[in-house]
Structures are given as structure tokens and as C-alpha cells.
From TrEMBL:
InterPro entries: HATPase_C_sf, HATPase_dom, His_kinase_dom, HisK_dim/P_dom, HisK_dim/P_sf, PAS, PAS-like_dom_sf, Sensor_HK_Regulatory. The lineage of its organism: Bacteria, Pseudomonadati, Pseudomonadota, Alphaproteobacteria, Sphingomonadales. Coiled coil: none annotated. Residues 227-238 have a biased composition (Low complexity). The keyword Flavoprotein does not apply. This is histidine kinase. SMART domains: HATPase_c, HisKA, PAS.
Length: 781
């Protein structure tokens, strides 16, 4: 009985334990069911969030398989669900290849990626961000998130353009204020100086702008109502610009300044000061000058009268009243210009004209004439001869001078004086001059004509005919028959009234250019100019030009031949270096491997230089043979930037790239186009200081693609700009090495671009940087 009872207890204990375990399991199961429902609910929430999220996921596994969100497939315009890279559709081919290379590189390095890709069938732009995929995805998998940024990119471009325009306008305004030749300032709401320009600093002889602001140095040192702050307060109270004349000490000198204050909506005040001391001095000096002129005119024998801007008489002297026969009392009443002419006409002191109103209107136009001095001769009815000189004045008035030249005109000796002047002038001319009458006789000659032909003065005084001079001329000529040509030319000029010219050589080695010109009186003017020196110079210049062309050709041939000859040893050096690097001579020590790598790098650079030299020399002599193929301008620019990026990184330079969708495609030689861009970028890197900025922009239209490369480097001086495209010519700058130092880049670039039918333009300013624009036509195959 006790044994049975013990077994029963054991069974009961076991049953109790099972019941406890079952209860615990039920509790655990209920808890897990609750957790599962929470997980399911969370998954549904995440799925809902993912549906409305602006990004779409894609998983790229290490075996090349991909898993793409179905909404992303629709946005890309794909026809089917892709399983691998090759099945993925809807992206631009070049962008697709770039994305694939970026994903492969990130999967190996475990880094993240961030780039933009374009849709192949539309203008949509996707921003792709990727990082290693979390477990349970296999190692090497990448999780990519695609977000449609098309509208954002367009808006960002507009905002960037607006910001650039605003910054450019602000920068221009700031430079304009800073470069202003007069002091300018800005006062805050507390009317304390907050900004001054360089002219202000120089005016108060301060160290710099911060020194002026820190010490609150004022341009106007007056106190009370005339102080600078009081003037600014007056502008704020009036609500508009105020102007006042106040003295100021500028660079230690007392000057009169016009102070202008302009209130701003913010409660601040802007102002500027203009030095009017010279204007005041000039006004005073002008008054003294006008008075002195009037005093002088009143003592002149010539008649003088002056009219103001209203055409009323403002001054006259007594000789004018006498010559014009006008009453001085009437002139003191300041009559108008037209009334003065009418009164002079009544006194017969004006020339007789057919239409007096028109004649008077023409003289009234003297007030606004653009000529500085107007001269006329008035012949009066009584035979008097007046010389009139009219001078328009800056203030709109007119000054007139009257000179009585009656006696001078009547002098009989005037003609003799003119003849003597003419003879003296002829004798001192450089040319040999002679005048032949219509009958062929020598009418006039100068001393040089007589000396050239070695003729006697007595014989010339007999006025011989041209036929009588020919034998003497023939003896002096290398070609005696040319003397007959001179005779026929003189006859042709006098009879046919047509000019003629030619060249003759004398036996003493001199050369002359001669010309025969018909004169209005029927005579013929014969001139001879000694061109011996210019002839010799021309001959020497021709010989020098020929020698220079030959030297240039020899230099070009030598460079080309040397480049070909250098290729053979260079190929051997490169080949042996590659064998050493490949271990054909055994394993190399680390230091030796570094030397071999340096040799290979030097061989590569020298090979490129030789190719550039050959292209440059052959392009001039044989022309450039281009390979024609479709070229993606955007990809071309990116490859060129990637090539120079390491050199830019060495100098901590920032290379910015902006490629517009309009850059598109063109047809041409990919290698030479890429090298053209690289040459320009190499120059930009070489001639830009450390931490400089280099920018590449690409755009285009239906006819051409335009690539613009700019930098903020040292720039090129104006006198050096014509040399930048010369072969083997360079601008000497410290620290510049490589192809830029050899002067190959820009000449090659121009040669390649022009071979494609394009153009290259360069703009530069010393210390301001350089901009090179490449224009490539979109030629068809």
C-alpha cells in the first residue's frame, strides 16, 4: 500500500511537472505570437513607408544578381523585372557603366557611393546612394537607393544661377565702391561708421578700413550742426538725399568737399564726398581769365564782340564799334545777335548777299558749331576787306574778331612775297621737283633737281625743253633708254592730263621713284624721291625672311627626326624595365621595384612628349589625319579631368566640373579631342597656385559643343598673349614644369581643334586667371 502510494506520488509529481512545463510553453508561445504579430505589423508599416518614400531600393549581390523594387522598374521604363546587371534597362549607357564600376569598387572596398545617373528615355535624373547591404545578404552585396531628383536638379540649377548672378552683381558693386576715386561710407542705424572704401582710408591717412572704423575717424572734423553725424541725421529726418558743402582735411591738405548723405530703408545712411576744391579754384580762375581777356580785347586794334548763351551782347571793344559803325550806347543795351547783324547791314558793313535771312541763319549756327574756330572774309560794298574769326564758347556764347585787311589785300608786293616763299620752299624740299609747261619747257625747278642730274644753273635759267634735257639725263641712268620714257611721260601728263609714275636707277647706285602729276594751270609737276635706303632695307628684309623660313624648316625637320630617333632607345628602355618589373631577372628588392616604376613612369611621360612633338611638327607639314567616330562630350571631359586629378590633388587644387545636358555628342578623333582638353587642364594646373580653383564647363547647341576651362591662377600678361600659341614658346614662370613648361600644350590644342573645324579662344589677365574656350562643331560622319 505504501509502495503503491509512492508510485502514485511520483506520477502526480511528473504530471505536475508536465503541466507546469506545458503552461510555461503556452505562455512562451503566446508571447512569441504577440511578438510575431508586432513584427508583422512593423513590416507592414515599413512596407507602407517604403511605398510612399521618395527613394527606391535595389540590392546588388556579389554574384552579379540584382533585386530591384518594382516601382523603380516602372520609373525606369523597363519592360521586365531584371535579374542581373545585363537585364537592367532604362539608364543611359555611359551612366550605367559608371554605376556598375562604382558598385564593383565599393563592394570590394566596403565603402559607400554617391552619384547621379540619367534615364535613357527621358530627362529624369536619379541620385544613387549605396552602401554595403546588411545581413542576411552575402558579403560583398550592395544596397542602392534611387531617388528621382529631376525637379530638384532643375530648381537647384535655377537657384545656383540666381545665386551666381547675385554674387556677381554684389561683387561688382563692392569692387566699384572700393575702386571709386572719391570717399564713400556706410553708417549703421546708430550712425557709426560701418564700411569705408579705399579712397576714404587714404583721405584720412589711416592704416586700413578697420583702423578707420575702430577709431571712428570722420572725414569732416567740424563739430555741432556741421558735423558728419549731424549731416547723416538730417538725411534720415528729411527722408531723402541731402547735399552740403563743407571743408575737410584730405591727406593733410584743406579741401572743399561736397558731402552727400542718402538714407536707407534699414535706418542706415550711405554717403560719399566729392572734392570740388579744384572746381571752385577753376571757377575763380575762369573769372580772372575772362576779365583779363576783356581787358586785353579792349586794348586790341582788332574789333572784338562777345555774346552770351542768350545771344545778347556781353562785351565789345571800341575798335569793333568803329569798324561796325555802331553806336556804343546802343551796344551797351545788350542787343541780340540778329539785331546787331541787321544794324550792321543798315550801315553797309556786311557783304551783299542774295538771301539775307538765310545768310543770317547760317551765322547764327556759329553758336552751336562743332568747329573751334570759324574764319570768313567779308568784302563790303565800298571795297573794304574784313577778316572775321568766330569762336564758339563752352558756355554757349560766341566771340567774334573783326580785322580790317583792306590795305594788305591791296598791297602789290603780296605776289612777290609768295613767289619768294615758293622758291625757298622748293629749294628745301627732300624731293627733286620740276614743273614743265604745256609746251614741254622747264618752267620751275629746285636745287635738288639740279644736283641729281648735275645740270648748270645758267642752262636751266634758259628754260630748256624736255627734249634738250634727255641727253644729260641719259648719261646719269643705268638704263639710258629710261630717259626717253621720262620725256614721253611728261608729254602724256601735259597733253592727256593723266598722272604717271615709275622707278629709275642712277649710275652712282641711287634709286629714285618718280611721278608726273597734272597741275590745274595745264603744267605738269615732276617729282623724284630718293628710295635708295628703303630699297636696300627691303632687299635685306627679304633675305632675312628667307633665312628665317629656312631656319624654321630645318628646326622642324630636326625636331621631327630626333623624335623618331628617340623612340627606338626609349622603346628598349621601356621593354627592359617592364621585364624587370615582371620578374624576368628575378625578384627585385622593394627599393629596386620603386626605381623600375620610376623608369616606367618617365618612359611613359617621355613617350607622350615625343608623340606630342611629332603631332605638332607633322601637323604643320603633312596635316593631321583624324579618326571619325561618335564622341560623348560629357564622358570626354570626365576622362580628361580624371587624368589631371592626381596632379591637381598634389597642389590641393579644387577641380570643378559642370556638364550641361546640351553638351551632347560630336564626331571626331576621341584621342586628340581628349588630349586637347588634357593639355588645357595641364596648363591650368601648372599655372595655378596651391589651393587654387580650376573649373570645366561643357555645353552646346545644335551646331557645336563648347568646352570652357577657367582658373584663378597667375594669368598671362597682355604683351605675352600673342605668344601663347607659338610652338616651343612658353611664358617663363617659376615652379612650372612638364609639358606646360615646354610650350607644347596650347599649340597642339589649337592644331587638333582647328583640324576638327573648331576654334580656340583664350582670355587672360595677369594675376586674375585664364579662360580657354574650345568650340567643336557637330560634324556628321
Amino acid at each position: 500500500m505504501s509502495g503503491l502510494g509512492g508510485s502514485t506520488w511520483i506520477v502526480l509529481i511528473i504530471a505536475g511537472l508536465w503541466l507546469a512545463i506545458a503552461g510555461a510553453l503556452l505562455v512562451i508561445a503566446a508571447r512569441r505570437m504577440r511578438d510575431a504579430r508586432a513584427v508583422v505589423q512593423s513590416a507592414k508599416s515599413m512596407a507602407a513607408l517604403l511605398d510612399v518614400a521618395p527613394v527606391r531600393p535595389m540590392i546588388v549581390r556579389s554574384d552579379g544578381s540584382i533585386e530591384v523594387d518594382h516601382r523603380l522598374i516602372r520609373e525606369l521604363g523597363a519592360d521586365q523585372t531584371p535579374k542581373s546587371w545585363d537585364d537592367l534597362q532604362g539608364l543611359d549607357e555611359s551612366d550605367m557603366e559608371t554605376l556598375r564600376e562604382a558598385v564593383q569598387g565599393a563592394s570590394l572596398s566596403g565603402s559607400s557611393i554617391e552619384l547621379q545617373v540619367k534615364s535613357a528615355g527621358s530627362n529624369r535624373v536619379f541620385e544613387v546612394r549605396g552602401s554595403p547591404a546588411p545581413p542576411p545578404n552575402p558579403a560583398g552585396s550592395m544596397l542602392l537607393w534611387f531617388s528621382d531628383t529631376s525637379s530638384a536638379e532643375a530648381e537647384r540649377s535655377k537657384l545656383a544661377l540666381r545665386i551666381r548672378q547675385t554674387e556677381a552683381a554684389l561683387d561688382s558693386l563692392t569692387h566699384l565702391i572700393e575702386a571709386a576715386p572719391f570717399p564713400m561710407w556706410y553708417r549703421g542705424p546708430d550712425l557709426r561708421l560701418g564700411l569705408v572704401n579705399r579712397a576714404f582710408v587714404e583721405a584720412v591717412e589711416a592704416r586700413d578700413a578697420s583702423d578707420v572704423i575702430g577709431r571712428s575717424t570722420e572725414l569732416i572734423d567740424s563739430a555741432g550742426p556741421d558735423s558728419a553725424r549731424s549731416s547723416a541725421e538730417s538725411a534720415l529726418e528729411s527722408g531723402g538725399p541731402t547735399s552740403s558743402m563743407q571743408p575737410a582735411t584730405v591727406r593733410g591738405e584743406r579741401r572743399m568737399m561736397r558731402i552727400v548723405n542718402v538714407p536707407l530703408p534699414t535706418g542706415a545712411v550711405a554717403g560719399f564726398a566729392i572734392d570740388v576744391q579744384e572746381l571752385e579754384d577753376a571757377r575763380t580762375e575762369l573769372g580772372r581769365h575772362v576779365q583779363s581777356q576783356r581787358d586785353l580785347a579792349d586794348r586790341m586794334t582788332a574789333g572784338t564782340i562777345q555774346f552770351d548763351a542768350d545771344r545778347a551782347v556781353s562785351f565789345f571793344n571800341r575798335p569793333f564799334a568803329v569798324m561796325a559803325q555802331l553806336d556804343p550806347e546802343w551796344l551797351f543795351e545788350r542787343p541780340e545777335f540778329d539785331r546787331v547783324l541787321e544794324r550792321m547791314r543798315e550801315r553797309n558793313r556786311l557783304p551783299e548777299v542774295r538771301d539775307f535771312p538765310v545768310w543770317k541763319a547760317e551765322r547764327r549756327a556759329w553758336f552751336t558749331s562743332a568747329e573751334e574756330v570759324i574764319e570768313e572774309d567779308w568784302i563790303l560794298a565800298d571795297g573794304d576787306h574784313l577778316r572775321i574769326v568766330a569762336q564758339p564758347l563752352p558756355d554757349g556764347g560766341l566771340r567774334m574778331f573783326l580785322e580790317d585787311r583792306t590795305e594788305q589785300v591791296r598791297l602789290a608786293s603780296a605776289r612777290d612775297t609768295l613767289l619768294r616763299v615758293r622758291a625757298a620752299t622748293f629749294d628745301n624740299l627732300f624731293e627733286a621737283i620740276s614743273v614743265f609747261a604745256s609746251d614741254g619747257r622747264l618752267y620751275l625747278w629746285n636745287r635738288r633737281f639740279r644736283d641729281v642730274w648735275e645740270l648748270e644753273e645758267e642752262r636751266l635759267s634758259e628754260h630748256p625743253r624736255v627734249d634738250e634735257l634727255i641727253p644729260a639725263m641719259a648719261r646719269k641712268l643705268v638704263n639710258p633708254t629710261a630717259a626717253a620714257q621720262i620725256r614721253e611721260m611728261v608729254r602724256h601728263t601735259t597733253n592727256e592730263r593723266q598722272a604717271a609714275n615709275g622707278r629709275i636707277s642712277l649710275t652712282d647706285g641711287r634709286h629714285f621713284e618718280f611721278a608726273a602729276v597734272p597741275l590745274p594751270d595745264g603744267n605738269a609737276l615732276f617729282t623724284m624721291v630718293d628710295v635708295t635706303d628703303s630699297t636696300r632695307i627691303q632687299s635685306a628684309l627679304r633675305e632675312r625672311a628667307t633665312a628665317l623660313e629656312e631656319a624654321d624648316r630645318v628646326k622642324t625637320d630636326f625636331v621631327a627626326n630626333m623624335s623618331y630617333e628617340l623612340r627606338t632607345p626609349l622603346t628598349s628602355i621601356g621593354g627592359f624595365a617592364e621585364m624587370l618589373a615582371g620578374g624576368y631577372a628575378g625578384k627585385l628588392a622593394p627599393a629596386a621595384s620603386g626605381y623600375v616604376d620610376a623608369i616606367l613612369e618617365a618612359v611613359s611621360r617621355l613617350s607622350k612628349l615625343i608623340d606630342d612633338v611629332l603631332d605638332l611638327t607633322q601637323g604643320d607639314t603633312q596635316g593631321i589625319v583624324l579618326e571619325r567616330e561618335r564622341v560623348d562630350v560629357a564622358g570626354l571631359c570626365r576622362m580628361a579631368v580624371e587624368a589631371v586629378q592626381p596632379r591637381a590633388a598634389e597642389k590641393n587644387q579644387k577641380v570643378q566640373v559642370e556638364i550641361a545636358p546640351s553638351a551632347g555628342f560630336t564626331f571626331g578623333d576621341v584621342r586628340r579631342l581628349r588630349e586637347s582638353i588634357e593639355h588645357v587642364l595641364d596648363n591650368a594646373v601648372a599655372y595655378t597656385d596651391r589651393r587654387g580653383r580650376i573649373r570645366l564647363e561643357a555645353a552646346g547647341n545644335d551646331d557645336k559643343a563648347v568646352i570652357r576651362i577657367s582658373d584663378n591662377g597667375i594669368g598671362i600678361a597682355k604683351q605675352d598673349l600673342p605668344r601663347v600659341f607659338n610652338r616651343f614658346d612658353r611664358i617663363d614662370e617659376a615652379g612650372v614644369r612638364g609639358e606646360a613648361a615646354l610650350g607644347l600644350g596650347l599649340p597642339l590644342t589649337r592644331q587638333f581643334i582647328e583640324a576638327h573645324g573648331g576654334t580656340i579662344d583664350l582670355e587672360s589677365k595677369k594675376g586674375k586667371g585664364t579662360t580657354v574656350t574650345l568650340t567643336i562643331p557637330r560634324a556628321s560622319k
